[in-house]
């Protein structure tokens, strides 16, 4: 089996329910098991900023799916959960990214591994640290990448008040 790490985010509708729905769909992938789920974090939008705050988490999975098959399954979950791609980095009911798949490095037309902007996003690095603190990405520990970023806006989600 291969180990993969997925990043999941949402900022539309019932955000916590969207994350839970995505996890439930991932649990149904054939020959795949979720091994760990990070805490949920709330973050300001990245890229296109005129939108609601996001809830983000990461999951580690063991899978026999090939990277391209896993990508297709993740895209199917996004469609099932009514994801619409209107504005790049815009609002979404759900976003599922393959962040890392074993130690595979690829720059395909549909899939780049590791995720090309993983080291730029504290909202990905922090939940990844929940899963595996000593994970090395592009030659550096997560903590080292995080030291390069402003992570103050990434807060553990404790529910809507």
Automatic annotation (TrEMBL):
Catalytic EC class: transferase
Residue stretches spanning the membrane: none
InterPro entries: Hppk, Hppk_sf
Gene Ontology MF annotations: 2-amino-4-hydroxy-6-hydroxymethyldihydropteridine diphosphokinase activity
Keyword ATP-binding applies: yes
EC number of this enzyme: 2.7.6.3
Residue ranges of every copy of the 7,8-dihydro-6-hydroxymethylpterin-pyrophosphokinase domain listed in the record: 88-99
Pfam families on file: HPPK
The entry's keywords: ATP-binding, Folate biosynthesis, Kinase, Nucleotide-binding, Transferase
Catalytic activity: 6-hydroxymethyl-7,8-dihydropterin + ATP = (7,8-dihydropterin-6-yl)methyl diphosphate + AMP + H(+)
Gene3D superfamilies: 7,8-Dihydro-6-hydroxymethylpterin-pyrophosphokinase HPPK
Annotated coiled-coil segments of the chain: none
Pathway recorded for this protein: Cofactor biosynthesis; tetrahydrofolate biosynthesis; 2-amino-4-hydroxy-6-hydroxymethyl-7,8-dihydropteridine diphosphate from 7,8-dihydroneopterin triphosphate: step 4/4
UniProt protein name: 2-amino-4-hydroxy-6-hydroxymethyldihydropteridine diphosphokinase
Source species: Tepidibacter hydrothermalis
């Amino acid at each position: 089996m291969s180990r993969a790490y997925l990043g999941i985010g949402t900022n539309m509708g019932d955000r916590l329910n969207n994350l839970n729905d995505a996890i439930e769909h991932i649990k149904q992938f054939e020959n795949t098991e979720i091994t760990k789920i990070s805490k949920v974090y709330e973050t300001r939008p990245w890229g296109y900023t005129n939108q609601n705050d996001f809830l983000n988490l990461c999951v580690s999975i063991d899978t026999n799916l090939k990277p391209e098959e896993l990508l297709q399954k993740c895209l199917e979950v996004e469609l099932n959960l009514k994801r619409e791609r209107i504005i790049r980095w815009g609002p979404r009911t759900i976003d599922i990214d393959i962040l890392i798949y074993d130690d595979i490095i690829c720059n395909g037309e549909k899939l780049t591994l590791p995720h090309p902007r993983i080291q730029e996003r504290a909202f990905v690095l922090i939940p990844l640290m929940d899963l595996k603190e000593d994970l090395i990405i592009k030659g550096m520990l997560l903590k080292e990448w995080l030291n390069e970023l402003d992570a103050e806006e990434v807060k553990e989600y404790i529910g809507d008040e």
